[in-house]
Amino acid sequence: MPLNRNLNEDQILLRDTVRKFAEEEIYHKAKELDEKEEFSYELTQGMADLGLLGALIPEEYGGSALDYVSYIIAVEEIARIDGSHGATVAAHNSLGTGPLITFGNEEQKKKYLPKLATGNLWGFGLTEPEAGSDAGNTQTTAEKDGDEWVINGSKIFITNSATDKTLGSTVLAKTGTSANGKSELTCFIVENDARGFTQKEMHGKMMWRASNTGELYFEDVRVKDSAILGKRGDGFKQMLATLDKGRLSIAAMGLGLAQGAFEYMLKYSKERKTFGKPISTYQANAFKMADVEMGLELSRPYLYDVCRMAEEKLNITKEGAIAKLYCSELAHTAANHCVQILGGYGLMKEYDAEKYYRDQKLLEIGEGTSEIQRIVIARALGCFDY
Ligand SMILES: Cc1cc2nc3c(=O)[nH]c(=O)nc-3n(C[C@H](O)[C@H](O)[C@H](O)COP(=O)(O)OP(=O)(O)OC[C@H]3O[C@@H](n4cnc5c(N)ncnc54)[C@H](O)[C@@H]3O)c2cc1C
């Protein structure tokens, strides 16, 4: 179990409360929801009732106004039990409400944040079929027509965007060409019931099967000038700043998943006997647990430290990438070892190892793949000439 080092009383209380909810409410439903590929409105509302959907929203808009470490601890605790529900909370806060809180004007905040703190969801529409790692290659367009904008295009893989509780998404669109010849990109707030805007739930995911992932289609969707988030032309900058912080929640998901897989294999290895002895007594197995424990012990304080940097509004581009990369690779290692320690049982759905193994994979892909994280870190080191 993680120690209480450097956590204050409120953070420990929050961690214990979320852990209880995850263990008592999410755990026994998670496998069936995963199997059926079903999003749970009931559990999502349960997490909202705990204040987790409004984790970063200021109190004046009905949120819990948690500090960043507390929010990250909550994500970690849910991901320790189930990746899908960890994803719902992480994406809603870091990617959904995050840009509205940071870049929204007073009118936009008043309109959306109270609902998003209490059970409604919001999507982050960056990725397109031709714009994943190369997110600047956005093809969706928004053309000015009087005091309106007409949006055409599509988005793919947008978390929380296609549920009955989703109010809308922040959508990046090309609004022109900048002086330097590059696309001028702007973020728009688009509500799910806007005419011409359709959301289609995606099915067939290997992992996070109980989390909602949507494709978004825009056919002559008209929004007013007032739907622009922040300033025209600032969209790409806003998206990148959002991802810097978002990567901390992916890191938290990695840490939580690694912790869950670690506890599961440690317990199993002490109970399972071969050749008359618990398998934990064989060095080949014990070293796997030692390696994962070392990763957990080293990465948790680092992640919390970067959260404190975010709280102080320091630049965390490099540190966020390091945390995301390291914790997602730790989750990969932990889940892999967990399956190996369980032998044949590790491959069976009845045991938790199998789901940990599937769920970890997204962490090395979403919000910037591991290759992109290495590029971000190397760029911060001045390795590239661009
Ligand atoms: C379940 C799920 C939820 C998601 N949620 C959201 C969401 O809420 N909002 C959103 O906007 N997006 C979301 N995404 C999209 C996700 O962020 C992208 O899938 C991811 O950024 C990778 O883009 P891509 O899939 O197009 O892969 P590609 O960009 O096509 O990359 C393919 C491979 O090439 C590698 N590669 C690409 N460029 C380089 C390079 N320059 N150097 C070295 N290697 C490179 C990549 O690392 C990767 O291994 C989600 C995805 C999934 C699967």
How would you briefly describe this protein structure?
The protein is α+β, with helices and mostly antiparallel strands. The chain has 10 helices and 9 strands.
Can you describe this structure?
This protein is an alpha+beta fold and 386 residues long. The protein folds into three domains: 9-120, Orthogonal Bundle (Butyryl-Coa Dehydrogenase, subunit A, domain 1); 122-235, Beta Barrel (Butyryl-CoA Dehydrogenase, subunit A, domain 2); 237-380, Butyryl-CoA Dehydrogenase, subunit A, domain 3 (Up-down Bundle). Helix content is 51%, strand content 17%. It has helices spanning 9-36, 41-49, 68-81, 83-103, 106-117, 235-271, 283-311, 317-342, 353-363, 370-380; strands at 121-125, 141-145, 148-159, 166-177, 183-191, 197-201, 213-224, 273-274, 277-278. The strands form three sheets. The protein has a four-stranded antiparallel beta sheet, with helices on one face. A three-stranded mixed beta sheet has the order 1-4-5. The protein has a two-stranded antiparallel ribbon with strand order 8-9. Strand 4 (166-177) and strand 5 (183-191) form a beta hairpin. The model has no long low-confidence stretch (mean pLDDT 97). The structure holds flavin-adenine dinucleotide (FAD). Residues 91, 95, 124-127, 132-133, 157-159, 205, 208, 213, 362, 365-369, 371-372 line the site of flavin-adenine dinucleotide (FAD). Flavin-adenine dinucleotide binds at residues 91, 95, 124-127, 132-133, 157-159, 205, 208, 213, 362, 365-369, 371-372.
